[in-house]
């Protein structure tokens, strides 16, 4: 294997107690391992500082409320949102998209259209299908280019003034392809549609600035950003959030409740019914601090070098077929002729290499690629050249076993 590029080593594996020596964890696109500062923040939040938010008159609860709102401000700063009020805490990207589909989607009329793409994760397909069945809207699907990017030229030709929303992955969880989000916004706005970006795979590896991207909604999950599970964020333009009706009812989202009539709190509280994931928000705050201290440019450069090495080495093995563009962000999907991806995953596991094998919640994309599943290696800040080398050794063993 030839090592290309200058994989500026981040050498951060010591920050991750869950990664033992000699284990190549290459499944960060599914979920990232957690650094010590995040684990410490979670322990402290459930430990010596634990209390509820919003309702308490005692000091501990007031402090926790401040910490919860500080986490919201941290997410706003991370995305360059105009204000913390534009950030709604959710369970993750799936919940964020369901929130938009149910709340903003209730404002749509029969015959309105939504544009998705062929590479979307099921969480950016199924909520829109549920809305279609409820509200009589139509869904269109933008095709992909040969190298696995959303074909924005074709999408522009397909868009009409009936389109109210374009909802696209900022980075594909299978192909790693990076969307030209700024151009997608211009195209969507050209027909009066809004742009929703699914940023799950983008926020851990690209600097995201919602103002510069000019999108209308941005969603992500904390657990792929080195934070806890069960917490994520929805950002939307304030005038859009203001016009959106509640989607779940309960405590904390109200202004005044009587049996005759209830009035609702302004955003973001309007969309956060019930006791929130207090600890999750504090863990997410720590995760954002961690990632930004490393720097997203450094992370991107590091992962790009690892992707380059992995792609070059895999391409030199005859039976390997690579998917996605050369410049994919942190993610390499591949198949080996005559070997089911699950067998690849099992043999690699014996070599202490953890990859993902399956449809990656993107069955329409698998249909497009003409495969039932792919093997996927995805990188994080803790990976290095040794992990790529372990992957390639494992793949060579797979090809020997199945030769
Ligand atoms: N979109 C993309 C691109 C993803 O990679 C994922 C997670 N695999 C999701 C959405 C859904 O995220 P979650 O399950 O955390 O809600």
TrEMBL record:
It catalyses: (sulfur carrier)-H + L-cysteine = (sulfur carrier)-SH + L-alanine. It holds the Pfam family Aminotran_5. GO terms for biological process: cysteine metabolic process. Its EC number is 2.8.1.7. GO terms for molecular function: cysteine desulfurase activity; pyridoxal phosphate binding. Its cofactor is pyridoxal 5'-phosphate. It comes from the Bacteria. Keywords: Pyridoxal phosphate, Transferase. Catalyzes the removal of elemental sulfur and selenium atoms from L-cysteine, L-cystine, L-selenocysteine, and L-selenocystine to produce L-alanine. NCBIfam families: sufS (TIGR01979). Belongs to the class-V pyridoxal-phosphate-dependent aminotransferase family. Csd subfamily. This is Cysteine desulfurase. It comes from Sphingomonas oleivorans. The lineage of its organism: Bacteria, Pseudomonadati, Pseudomonadota, Alphaproteobacteria, Sphingomonadales.
């Amino acid at each position: 294997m030839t090592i290309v590029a200058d994989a500026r080593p981040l050498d951060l594996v010591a920050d991750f107690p869950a990664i033992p020596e000699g284990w190549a964890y290459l499944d960060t696109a599914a979920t990232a391992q957690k650094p010590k500062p995040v684990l410490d923040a979670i322990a402290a939040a459930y430990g010596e500082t634990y209390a509820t938010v919003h309702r308490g008159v005692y000091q501990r609860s007031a402090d926790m409320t401040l910490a919860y709102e500080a986490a919201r401000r941290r997410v706003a700063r991370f995305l360059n949102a105009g204000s913390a009020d534009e950030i709604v805490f959710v369970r993750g990207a799936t919940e964020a998209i369901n929130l938009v589909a149910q709340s903003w989607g209730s404002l749509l009329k029969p015959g309105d259209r939504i544009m998705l793409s062929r590479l979307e994760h099921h969480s950016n397909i199924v909520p829109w299908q549920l809305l279609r069945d409820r509200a009589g809207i139509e869904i269109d699907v933008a095709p992909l280019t040969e190298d696995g990017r959303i074909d924005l030229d074709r999408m522009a030709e397909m868009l009409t003034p009936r389109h109210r929303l374009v909802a696209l992955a900022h980075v594909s969880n299978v192909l790693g392809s990076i969307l030209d989000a700024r151009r997608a916004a211009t195209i969507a706005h050209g027909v009066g549609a809004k742009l929703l970006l699914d940023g799950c795979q983008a926020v851990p590896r690209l600097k995201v600035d919602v103002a510069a991207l000019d999108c209308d909604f941005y969603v992500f999950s904390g657990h792929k950003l080195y934070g806890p599970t069960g917490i994520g964020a929805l950002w939307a333009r304030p005038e859009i959030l203001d016009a959106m009706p509640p989607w779940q009812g309960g405590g904390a989202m109200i202004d005044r409740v009587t049996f005759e009539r209830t009035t609702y709190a302004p955003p973001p509280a309007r969309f956060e019914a019930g006791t929130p994931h207090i600890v999750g928000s504090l863990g997410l705050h720590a995760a954002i601090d961690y990632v930004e201290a490393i720097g997203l440019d450094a992370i991107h450069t590091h992962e790009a070098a690892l992707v380059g090495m992995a792609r070059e080495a895999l391409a030199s093995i005859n039976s390997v077929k690579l998917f996605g563009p050369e410049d994919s962000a942190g993610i390499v999907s591949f198949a080996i002729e005559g070997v089911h991806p699950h067998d690849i995953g099992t043999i690699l596991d014996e070599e202490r290499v953890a990859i993902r094998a399956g449809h990656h919640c993107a069955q329409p994309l698998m249909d497009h690629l003409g495969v039932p599943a792919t093997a996927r290696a995805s990188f994080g800040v803790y990976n290095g050249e040794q992990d790529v080398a372990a992957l390639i050794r494992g793949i060579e063993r797979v090809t020997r076993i199945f030769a």
